[in-house]
Amino acid sequence: MHALHSANDLDALLDDIGDRPVVMLGEASHGTHEYYTWRTAISKRLIREKGFNFIAVEGDWPDCYRINRFVKGYKDAGDNIKDVLLHFDRWPTWMWANWEVAALADWLREYNQSKPLVQKVGFYGLDVYSLWDSLYAMINYLEKEDPQAAQSVKKAIQCFEPFQEDEHAYARYSLTEHSCRDKVLAMLREIRLKAQFLDGDREAGFNTEQNAIIAVNAEKYYSTMMSFNNDSWNVRDTHMMETLDRLMTFHGPKAKGIVWEHNTHIGDARATDMRRSGMVNIGQLAREQYGINKVYLVGFGSYQGTVIAGEEWGAPMKVMDVPEAREGSIEHQLHSESPQNRYLLFNAEEMRRQWDEAIRHRAIGVVYHPSREKFGNYVPSVMSNRYDAFVFLDATRALHPLHLKPHAEKIPETYPFNY
C-alpha cells in the first residue's frame, strides 16, 4: 500500500504504469470532488512525464470538442472556460460543467501554449448520447464547407424531427415502424467519402466523421433502449471503445491516451457480476483489443462523505450525504485498517492473492438514494482482476458545479496539493 497525500506520492503508480499507452482512471460516483482532482493530478504527471496526447471522458463528443478547441487555442474557441462549459446543458450537467474541470482545462490551455499544434494535448468525449447535437454540428459546418454532403445530414435530421429530440419517443417508434437507420448509414457513407477533403483545422474532418459515427451508433443505442436485455449498455461501451481506438489512430502510432470514466466502465467487467449478464465495458474491450500489458486500469473509492447527484433522472442536482460504507465492502475494510488515503497496486503476487476473491465495491450513479444503500449500490468485484490499481480516499466531498452559484467570485481551489 502507498500513502497518498500529494502528487509526489504517485511515483509508485507512475512506475507501475510504465510505458502502457492507455491509462483509464475511474470514479465511484459522477459527483465527487476528490475523484476529479486526483485524476487531474495523475493526468498532469502522465502528460508531463510520459507524453500522453489526450484525455477522453465519459461525455458527449460535441460539448467536449468545444473544450478541445479551447485547450488548443483554436480560432474562435473562446477565452473563458466557464463560457465553454456552460454549453453542457444536457442532464447531468454537473459531470463536466464544474469548477474542477474548468481548472484542468485552464491548465491544459496554458500547457499547450508553447507546443506546436501536433503536440497539443486534446480533450474529447467518448459517449454516444449526442444524436441531435452531432447532427446539428455537422449541418452547421457542412452547409459552409460542402453543401452536397450537407444534404445527407438534412435527410437524417428530417427523419428524426417528428420525435422532437425525445429519444424515448424514437425508441418506441423504432419497435413498430421503419427506423431512421438507413438515413444515418447513408449519411455516414457520404461523410466518409468527403471527410479527408474538408477545409478547416486539422481536426475538422475527423470531428465531422466522428459526429456521423455517433449518429449511427446513437440510433442503434436508442433502438435497443426499450429491450429487456443489456444490448443498449453493450452498444454504448462498444461505441466508446471504437471512439478511443479512432483517437489513438488519429494521434499516430506512438499515441498515448487517458480515459476518465466511472468504475463500472473502466473496471474490467469480467471481474464482476456483469459478466453473467452478458455485459462488456471499455476496460474489458481495451484489454482484449490492445493486450493486458498495454492498458492500465485505476479504480477509485471512498468510505464516506458527500456527493452531487439527483433523486431521479432529470431531477435538480443536490448535495447528498454518502453514508459509511457497508460492512463486507472493500471501502469498509480499508477504512477499518486505517483512515489514511492510499492506493493499492495489484502487480505483486501477494497483493493479487489477497484480493482475488469477490468483495463488495460501492458504485454511485447520477441518480442516488443514500437511504437505499443497504439494498444496492455495491458491485461484487475481484479487485485484482478488475483493476491494476485502486485509489482509496477515506472521506470525500461533493464537487462544485458551474450551474450552482459558487462560493466565491473566482474558481475555487480545486487541488489538495501544490504541483
The CATH topology of the largest domain, please?
EreA/ChaN-like  fold
- The CA-CA distance between the termini, in Å, is 22 Å
Please provide the count of β strands: 9
Class of the largest domain in CATH? Alpha Beta
Shape, please? globular
Level-2 CATH architecture of the largest domain: 3-Layer(aba) Sandwich
Measured on Cα atoms, how large is the radius of gyration?
A: 21 Å
Largest sheet descriptor: 9 strands, mixed
Order of helices and strands: EHEHEHHHEHHHHHHEHHEEHEHHE
Structural class: alpha/beta
Q: What does the average pLDDT come to?
A: 92
Low-confidence stretches: 406-419
Number of helices: 16
Helix content: 40-55%
Task: Tell me the CATH superfamily of the largest domain.
Answer: EreA-like (biosynthetic domain)
Task: Determine the strand fraction and express it as a percent band.
Answer: 5-15%
Count of structural domains? 2
